[in-house]
Amino acid sequence: MQNEENMILPIVGYGHHSLRNENQDVPKDYPELEQLVENMFETMYNANGVGLAAPQVNLNLRLFVVDGSPMDGFVEGEEGLSDFKRVFINPEILEEEGKEWAFEEGCLSIPDIREDVFRKPVIKIRYYDVAFKEIVETLDGIKARIVQHEYDHIEGVLFTDHISQLRRRMLKPRLSKITKGVISADYKMKFAK
Description:
This protein is an alpha+beta fold and 193 residues long. It contains three helices and nine strands. The strands form three sheets. Strands 2-3-4-7-8 form a five-stranded antiparallel sheet, sandwiched between helices. Strands 1-9 form a two-stranded parallel sheet. It starts with 10 loop residues before the first strand and ends with a strand.
């Protein structure tokens, strides 16, 4: 690991182009990848998040980090979240299975808005870790949901895209304020120009 100090990056807000742009695969020789990953974890922890995708820090790469430990004990029947810390590089969801279930989601790019989102409970995903070792893993419950939410980010999708048109219309004034930067967050943010 480099001696460089970790850096907290600004998180882009709703309406920023980075959240909708196409995201590129991370090449094996990406410069200072380990430092970027450390910075993303540091940024996520600083904002009290459980996941953070590269587009949220204005990098259009297929990369996200997760740490489910803050949710450990939060949902009955969900175990192993305290050990659920991962880096997902160039991931691909191979399968999604089961009956969709609702759970309230939020997003660091959309502060102060939480909505029920329906997702399938089991996923099979292929990805690379920070050492570019290929991993294929089946995840369920909250782990699957955290990953699906972050995976959506690298596909240019936000959790608000999963809610009804009526709810989106009702949230429009609040979303518009975020786009304009008229929002208070406890972490560094960057907004659409």
